[in-house]
Specification:
single chain, alpha/beta, Aspartate Aminotransferase, domain 1, Aspartate Aminotransferase, domain 2, four-stranded antiparallel β-sheet, 13 strands, binds pyridoxal-5'-phosphate
């Protein structure tokens, strides 16, 4: 007798995360290592957030509030939605997984862009879905082709806005055009993990779309701008009926108590995070200018990360060379982006270190 393994799961290509800093230190015997590989905030959470976490520590013997009561109220007020329109998750990855579990059966179809965030495909493959991958067009979503890809079997469409790894966004009129003609039975998941970074007048106001469309689920996270990647908390916003449906799928205590307290404190410390946004904007500008000076081309980004093209010595060799210098970046070959590196915008010091290292490599 052998265990009956599921074929759909055996077919999944596992997600490979960016290497942790300590692992690289150990393996290469380096003292000074920086990580620009996973689009994390290079800055710690605000002092107020850290204090809140500390104050919550003695209560760790208790289960968390399964309903995220205080965070739910505050966030609903900030977003101008009903508290019952929110679903919290152990990172927004969990919301993505719940959406797939809730709406996708074996043999159904899921439409994604390619390349895009790998979790969309992985979660869908686990459910036994067939993936319809629509290539990006010059790094932008090809929304008309994605709409073309919808069939009677389609249950879910993933739209990253802005997308990872391209860093591009689509506009209000583009999404409105796209949604016209999408059957109301198809869930459209709009992943806004980077929405806090986007500064563009024509960026989608997705919360407004919820008034007209009942088949939209918006996901956001505290992992990026708010610097809580290690605590794991994100959320989905949708219509009440859909959220109530998905809520049945989650585990009762899926969001830990420290994450809840920390996320609430983030929302109450707007000034700190506005400062961080300024620094990221300056960092992006600094990197653009210096990449240009090095003669390297890059993909203009509306997020905290940038794709850099490296024909010489080639992205995978460059990533290895950077690693030896204590800089962890992403070689994007596995995403089908030959000779592209994805780097996260770091602190001043980190950005300078990256540029200096790139100068030595190219
Ligand atoms: C980082 C990221 C997420 C967020 O993941 P969490 O589980 O909230 O940490 C979601 N979508 C995309 C495209 C991302 O890059």
């Amino acid at each position: 007798m052998r265990l009956a393994l599921k074929k759909a799961i055996l077919n999944v290509k596992p997600y490979v995360p960016g290497k942790p800093i300590n692992e690289v230190k150990r393996e290469l015997g380096l003292k000074d290592v920086i990580k620009l590989a996973s689009n994390e905030s290079p800055y710690p959470p605000s002092p107020k957030v850290l204090k809140t976490i500390q104050e919550a520590l003695p209560e760790l013997n208790r289960y968390p509030d399964g309903n995220c009561y205080y965070l739910r109220r505050k966030l609903a007020e900030n977003l101008g939605v009903d508290p019952r329109q929110l679903l919290f998750g152990n990172g927004s990855d969990e919301i993505i997984v719940l959406a797939v579990r809730g709406f996708v059966n074996e043999g159904d179809e899921v439409v994604v862009a390619e390349p895009s965030f790998l979790i969309y495909e992985i979660a869908s493959q686990i459910a036994g879905a067939n993936i319809k991958a629509v290539p990006l067009k010059d790094f932008y979503y090809d929304l008309p082709q994605m709409k073309e890809a919808v069939t009677k079997k389609t249950k879910l469409i993933f739209l990253g806005n802005p997308d990872n790894p391209s860093g591009k966004y689509f506009t209000q009129s583009q999404i409105e055009q796209f949604l016209e003609g999408i059957p109301p039975s198809v869930l459209v998941l709009i992943d806004e993990a980077y929405y806090e970074y986007v500064q563009a007048d024509d960026y989608v106001n997705s919360l407004n779309l919820l008034k007209k469309y009942k088949n939209i689920l918006i996901t956001r996270t505290f992992s990026k701008m708010y610097g809580l990647a290690g605590l794991r908390i994100g959320y989905g916003v949708g219509n009440q009926e859909m959220i109530n449906y998905l809520d049945r799928l989650r585990e009762p205590f899926n969001v830990n108590s420290l994450a809840q307290a920390a996320a609430l404190a983030c929302l109450e410390d707007k000034r700190y995070y506005a400062e961080l946004l300024k620094k990221i904007n300056e960092g992006r500008k600094f990197l653009y200018e210096n990449l240009k000076e090095l003669g390297l081309s890059y993909v203009e980004s509306f997020t905290n990360f940038i794709l850099i093209k490296l024909d010489k010595p080639g992205a995978s060799l460059a990533a290895q060379n950077l690693l030896k210098k204590g800089i962890i970046v992403r070689d994007m070959s596995a995403w089908g982006l030959k000779n592209y590196l994805r780097i996260t915008i770091g602190t001043d010091v980190e950005n300078k270190k990256l540029i200096k290292a790139l100068e030595e490599i190219v």
